[in-house]
Amino acid sequence: MTEETLIQLKQRIEDALVELEELQECGDLDEVLEAAFRVGEMQDRYNRAIAAHRIEQSPR
């Protein structure tokens, strides 16, 4: 995975967090919970991608 892809993933997470904050202000509980779950899944994928990238970049 390239650094550019990692940056894009991080930006998508930040966008999803903004959406989550907006939903918390005016959305119903189900919408907020779904958005929070999506953010959590995205953060998990990002963390795994970062770990894989570091392994790829490490000297062997």
Can you give a write-up of this model?
The chain is built from 2 helices and no strands. By secondary structure, it is an all-alpha fold. The protein has one domain (about 5-55). α1 (about 5-25) runs antiparallel to α2. It is elongated. It starts with a helix and ends with a helix.
Query: For the residues shown, what is the average pLDDT?
Result: 92
Derived structural class: mainly alpha
The span between the termini is: 18 Å
What characterizes the major β-sheet? none
Query: What is the β-strand count?
Result: 0
Radius of gyration: 14 Å
Strand content: under 5%
> Spans of 5+ residues with little confidence (pLDDT < 50)?
none
Helix content: over 70%
Order of helices and strands: HH
Shape: elongated
Give the tally of structural domains. Answer: 1
**What's the number of helices?**
2
Give the key terms.
60 residues; 88% helix; 2 helices
Write the layout of secondary structure elements.
Blueprint: H1 3-26, H2 29-57
Produce a short descriptive summary:
With 60 residues, this protein is an all-alpha fold.
